[in-house]
Amino acid sequence: MYFKMALKNIKKSYKDYAIYFLTLILAICIFYSFNSIDSQKAFIDIKSSNIKCMSKLTDAMSFLSVVVSIILGSLILYANNFMIKKRKKELAIYMTLGMGKRKVSGILVKETAIVGAISLIFGLLLGTLVSQALSVFTLKLFDIGLNEYRFAVSGNAICKTILYFGIMFLLVMIFNVFVISRYKIID
Hints:
The protein is mostly helical. It contains 7 helices and no strands. It has helices spanning about 1-10, 15-35, 40-50, 50-85, 90-95, 100-140, 155-180. It starts with a helix and ends in a 5-residue tail after the last helix.
């Protein structure tokens, strides 16, 4: 029942959720694209020919990946907070009608899981396309012919994206439960 309610809430608030979806999809797309650059065959060839320089570049990209995830996590928390504030009246109505804070929190957790899963799928698909464009740009940057290009999907980048964004969505769920537990109907 609460799962259906969460789906109806998402459909009903599609205008508000559209901005949130776009934010999440773009964040996932950027993160995946950034982490999948090193999976391109030509980049691997560059790594093997210039090991010392490329290992430093790979280490720098790993560090930047963590920095990017922190920035994107902050953006996601901000967008989520915006959504919660926008829906304060709706949540208060649920509580006024007798729904406990735990059940309201459960609905928000389900909504976050649904939105997270859908945005993760679309973000990874868009990220795959953007990463291919970045690969072509990287090849041109290093003056490597496009004959070295091949379509590549990075399993490592997909796993990293799912892990990092899974943690982010888990933090958002915990944040939502905390915020709801502190709400008062009069607010």
